Amino acid sequence: MIVGFPAGGSTDIFARLVAEPLGQRLGRPVVVENRAGAGGGIGAAATARAAPDGYTMQMATVGTGAINYALYKDLPFGPDDLASVSRVAEVANVIMVPARSRFHTLKDLVEEARRRPGELTFGHSGVGSSLHLTGELLAVEAGVRLTHVPFRGAAQMLPELIAGRIEIGIDNVPSSLQQIRDGRVRAIAVTSLERHPGLPDTQTTVEAGFPTVQAMAWWGVQVPRKVPAPVLARLASELQSITRDAGYREKAEEQGATPVTDTPEQFEAFVAAEIAKWRDVAQRANITLG
Question: What percent of the chain has pLDDT above 70?
Answer without folding.
Answer: 100
